[in-house]
Amino acid sequence: LGRAPAAPRPLQAPLRVSPGCRAAPGRFAYKLLHDLFANYSSALRPVEDTDRALNVTLKVTLAQIIDMDERNQVLTSYLWVRQTWLDAHLTWDKDEYGGIDSIRIPSGYVWRPDIILYNNADEHFGGSMETNVVLRSDGHITWDSPAITKSSCKVDVSYFPFDGQQCRLTFGSWTHNGNQIDLRNQLDSGDLTDFVENVEWEVLGMPATRNVITYGCCSEPYPDVTYTLLLRRRASFYIFNLLLPCIMVSFLAPLGFYLPADSGEKVSLGVTVLLALTVFQLLVAESMPPSESVPLIGKYYIATMTMITASTALTIFIMNVHHCGPGARPVPPWARRLILHHMARLCCVYEVGESCKGPRRAPGGRAAP
Questions:
Q1: How do 102-106 and 54-69 pair as beta strands?
Q2: Which of 129, 41, 23, 39 is nearest to 82 (CA)?
Q3: Rounded to an integer, what distance in angstroms lies between the CA atom of residue 259 and that of residue 109?
Q4: Strand pairing of 74-86 and 140-152?
Q5: Of 150, 151, 114, 112, nearest in space to 131 by CA
Q6: How many helices (H) and strands (E) does the chain have?
Q7: Residues 6+ apart with CB under 8 A from 326
Q8: Residue 12 in 3-state DSSP?
Q9: Cα torsion for 212, 215, 220, 222, to the nearest 10°?
Q10: C-alpha count within 13 angstroms, C-beta hemisphere, residue 328
Q11: Where are the alpha helices (DSSP H) in the chain?
């Protein structure tokens, strides 16, 4: 009566997986790797018929624009490059190897197409990073590799800072012609799904085109895939730091004509404004490439500096006339008539009196001198 009820027995004893059963897929993988590469050479193009071209599909994903060097005309970008091709020598029956449908192995084990960036601008560029490839039982190989590329880009700064650029990324085989490797693009444009926005450049698109070019050295065609990166500059930074200060400084130059002649600051104001514009002009010139096309903002600076220089020179002439005193020669009648009659009406300058509606009239109906 004092005994506790016995614990219920399990309906079925727990199953135990032996180490041999757990390691079976691993043994199949080792056996598969040994059988595939027993008589394999990664130096030869993997085709059954050497007269047929090997199809290579290319897909480029733009991850980030690292830098755009306008002065050296070099674009630095971070790309994910995917290459897909069929290796006829690396196929197997997955039922004979424990149902293994795909394996991931170092890319150095298999033959790889020598696809490089044609317009590369980096002397230390060694191609894509060494990553694993995905090998499937039907022989299809997928190689995803990230790469930081520096490509040459023709920069047109004619409308800086409201300019747009078109930078091309051209990929192709370096040694194989179109009869050996048929390079094609997987998509009609670059993949921008994982793109990290750039603070200076806005990406409008990245269309892809396939070109077949015959060079002068060789009679065989060479296909390539060109991605055109369409960029537009974000001009807010340059508007607030270069354009608006220039406009505000240039408005100070006409104020020199309203300063009293005896203040002694009329010429100093014009020279100070001219020096300020010169500093802004140097800042623009440092970031622009030396070319025949002058940027739009550079033309604006030159025009403003020309007007301020003329204004300062005219101020010096006025100061000289003002300080001549009564000992100066009288003004010729033609000069008085030109300045006080015609130029006064043109510049809307009237003699200060009781009424500012128009020039003071003499009794004969003519403007008083």
A1: unpaired
A2: 129
A3: 82
A4: antiparallel
A5: 112
A6: 8, 11
A7: none
A8: coil
A9: -40
A10: 10
A11: 19-22, 24-36, 236-238, 244-250, 266-287, 296-322, 333-337, 344-346
**Residue in the block written with tokens 């020669």:** 329
Strand-pairing partners, residue 117, are 171
Tokens 């990553």 belong to 131
Provide the phi-psi class of 264: left if phi over 0, else alpha when psi is between -120 and 50, else beta: left
For the chain, the structural domain boundaries read 28-35+43-234, 245-326, 330-369
CB of 147 within 8 A of CB of 124? no
What single letter denotes the amino acid at residue 156? D
The tokens for 219 are: 């009679």
> Which amino acid makes up residue 76?
T
pLDDT digits (tens, 9 = 90+) for 282-309: 887 777 777 777 888 888 888 888 888 8
Strand arrangement of the beta sheet that strand 54-69 belongs to: 102-106, 132-136, 140-152, 74-86, 54-69, 181-185
Q: How many residues does the chain have?
A: 369
Per-residue pLDDT tens for 51-98?
899 999 999 999 999 999 888 899 999 999 999 999 999 999 988 888
Alpha-carbon distances of 229 from 65, 159, 183, 202, rounded to whole Å = 10, 18, 20, 10
d(CA 129, CA 212): 27
Distance from C-alpha of 119 to C-alpha of 121, rounded to nearest angstrom: 6
Six-digit token string for 177: 């012609």
Assign 263 to helix, strand or coil.
helix
- Gyration radius of the chain's alpha carbons: 39
**Please, what is the average pLDDT of the chain?**
81
Environment class of 298 (CB within 10 Å of its CB; exposed 0-12, middle 13-18, buried 19+): middle
State the Cα–Cα distance between residues 270 and 307, nearest whole angstrom: 10
Which homologous superfamily does the CATH classification assign to the domain defined by 28-35+43-234? Neurotransmitter-gated ion-channel ligand-binding domain (2.70.170.10)
The pLDDT of residue 141: 96
Cα separation, 362 vs 341, whole angstroms: 13
Cis peptide before 161 (omega within 30 of 0): yes
Q: Is 145:171 a contact under the CB 8 Å cutoff?
A: no
For the chain, the helix, strand and coil percentages under 3-state DSSP, each to the nearest 5: 30, 25, 45
